[in-house]
Write a structure and sequence with these properties.
- The chain is of the alpha/beta class and 235 residues long.
- Helices cover 30% and strands 26% of the residues.
- It has 7 helices and 13 strands.
- A hairpin with a 4-residue loop joins strand 3 and strand 4.
- Helix 2 runs parallel beside helix 3 and helix 2 runs parallel beside helix 7.
């Protein structure tokens, strides 16, 4: 048995215990037995090969002998502020951003936004981060922040050297895709608007905070497509 399971506390050598959803999946769904080995990761950069010692109804006890610091992260951080789309498109977006190594996702509250995530919705998306990390091999969880307005988002990330706001169509004096790819290792914060784009006042706010407009090409992209394109172009 070779699979990855998330431990919600920092990994340490010795006996550790899985509970909740992870224990249920390992013990009840996968029908794991003592002696089976799995990979554990703690979302903070560590993983370990662990041997199952005991399987109970609600818990699985494992022995960890060695911790491994395996780095599968991007060379530079990428923070994305995104006006989330509706429904299952949110989960798909989160899954793919995890796979592409995005460091943090911040839901944006915008004038034309169509979805304002509730606390329960954010919890579901954070669970999706864990599931996607298990699949793709990331040992650090992509963070999902509480929703922010664009102005708050700009102020909170003022110390980033590369600050980009996606804007469809021709952008005079801004970056295009080729220009963005010249510096893939630079820490980046970027904003993606809702369907219909950011309104003029929001673009003005970003400009006042030193954000550079970015064109992703001549076609109008869906929110999740634009976010994935940005993640792919920046490393």
């Amino acid at each position: 048995m070779s699979a990855r399971y998330f431990l919600s506390q920092p990994l340490a050598t010795g006996l550790v215990e899985l509970d909740g959803t992870e224990a249920h999946h390992l013990g009840r769904v996968m029908r794991a037995q003592p002696g089976d080995q799995v990979t554990l990761f703690d979302g903070q950069g560590l993983e370990a090969l662990a041997t199952i010692q005991q399987v109970d109804r609600e818990h699985v006890t494992l022995q960890v002998d060695e911790l491994l610091e395996v780095d599968r992260e991007r060379p530079a951080s990428l923070v994305l502020g995104v006006a989330l789309p509706r429904g299952d498109r949110q989960k798909w977006l989160v899954e793919k951003l995890v796979e592409l190594g995005v460091s943090r996702l911040v839901p944006l509250v915008t004038e034309r936004g169509v979805a304002q995530p509730t606390d329960k919705a954010l919890d579901r998306l954070r669970r999706m981060v864990i599931e996607a990390s298990k699949q793709c091999g990331r040992n650090r969880l992509m963070e999902i922040d509480m929703p922010r307005t664009l102005e708050d988002f700009c102020q909170a990330h003022a110390d980033y050297s590369r600050k980009l706001i996606a804007h469809p169509g021709e952008v005079v004096g801004g970056l295009d895709k080729q220009g963005l790819m010249l510096n893939p290792d630079e820490a980046t914060v970027a904003a993606v608007g809702p369907e219909g784009g950011f309104c003029t006042s929001e673009l003005d706010v970003a400009g006042q905070h030193g954000w550079q407009r970015l064109s992703l090409g001549p076609r109008i992209l869906r929110v999740e497509t634009a976010a994935l394109a940005l993640a792919g172009l920046t490393g």
